[in-house]
Specification:
Elements lengths: L7 E5 L4 H12 L3 E6 L4 H9 L3 E6 L5 H15 L4 E4 L17 H29 L2 E6 L12 H21 L4 E8 L5 H4 L4 H10 L13 H8 L10 E4 L7
Parallel strand pairs: 1-2, 1-4, 2-3, 4-5, 5-6, 6-7
Helix pairs in contact: 1-2, 1-8, 3-4, 4-5
This protein binds nicotinamide-adenine-dinucleotide.
Nicotinamide-adenine-dinucleotide (NAD) binds next to α1, α4 and α6.
Length: 251
């Protein structure tokens, strides 16, 4: 199913975890994929090119405009302007559960800087190219946590709540430039870093009990929703959030 043929898709935070799976899925759907991360994305890119897909790994920090500009320029030279931005990079897997009294203000600021401001910086970096193309799709990865109270990740939840609000406001602001902005809100997903967390199997078992489709959520479960929102199949959809969590939260 090559629904993304001819499109260039930039996925942030794609060196591993959910982002890497989205990158592989977009490439399998025919896209030219740009893997952007502070870490090396070469392994993900090689997996794609080994399967005859098209991929470029670029190292960049989403909170650094100069580093982003260099990455976007490299991507443009190889594949042309970016059609689709997946704002997936975040401080998440490396965050510990912590009570609201114990979150340091430094950590709070860092989470906001990466998860909120970094997402805006990525949008700004790809916007001139999308305007040249006269179209674009931006997909923000939020979380289902913002629709139900969950304890002990207040900084993270606040950042994703902000990204959710930004999805609607950016959709309103960019619509007349034919740029759509949507979000995907995953449930707890067994990415590499999540799997490495202490006590995760017990927490996952609890969450599975609250899901209509009572099983573990894997990174692969998010790929179909990304391809839909990236493709022309969703050409009249903007400002929406698709919760992909096996029926845990029902809006
Ligand atoms: N795994 C889950 O349970 C889950 C659930 C809901 C939402 N999410 C969201 O899905 C996304 C991916 O989750 P994951 O589990 O794969 O997370 P992860 O922590 O394993 O991966 C995040 C990636 O972002 C990169 N990154 C972090 N800061 C960056 C920066 N400043 N510049 C560039 N890259 C940066 C990291 O290097 C890493 O590769 C995140 O936005 C997360 O909040 C995850």
């Amino acid at each position: 199913m090559e629904t993304l043929t001819g499109k260039t898709v930039l996925v942030t935070g794609a060196a591993q975890g959910i982002g890497a799976e989205i990158a592989r899925g977009a490439a399998a759907a025919g896209a030219q994929v740009v893997i952007l991360d502070v870490l090396s994305g070469e392994a993900t890119a090689k997996q794609i090119t080994d399967q005859a897909g098209q991929a470029l790994a670029v190292e960049a920090d989403i909170t650094d405009d100069q580093s982003l500009a260099r990455a976007v320029e490299q991507a443009q030279q190889q594949f042309g302007d970016i059609d689709v931005l997946v704002n997936n990079a975040a401080m998440f897997g490396d965050l510990q559960q912590v009570s609201l009294e114990d979150i340091s203000y430094d950590t709070w600021d860092q989470v906001m800087r990466v998860n909120v401001r970094g997402a805006l910086q990525c949008v700004r970096a790809v916007l001139p190219g999308m305007q040249r193309l006269g179209r674009g799709s931006i997909i923000n990865i939020t979380t289902n946590r913002i629709y139900r109270g969950f304890a002990n990740m207040l900084h993270y939840d606040a950042s994703k709540g902000a990204l959710s609000a930004m999805t609607r406001s950016m959709a309103a602001e960019l619509g007349d430039r034919h740029i759509r902005v949507n979000a995907i809100a995953p449930g707890l997903t067994m990415s590499d870093r999540v799997l490495a967390k202490e006590g995760i199997q017990g927490r996952n078992a609890q969450i599975i009990k609250g899901r209509a489709l009572g099983r573990s959520q894997e990174p692969q479960d998010l790929v179909g929703a990304v391809i839909f929102l990236a493709s022309d199949a969703s050409s009249f959809v903007s400002g929406q959030t698709l919760v992909v969590d096996g029926g845990g939260v029902m809006l």
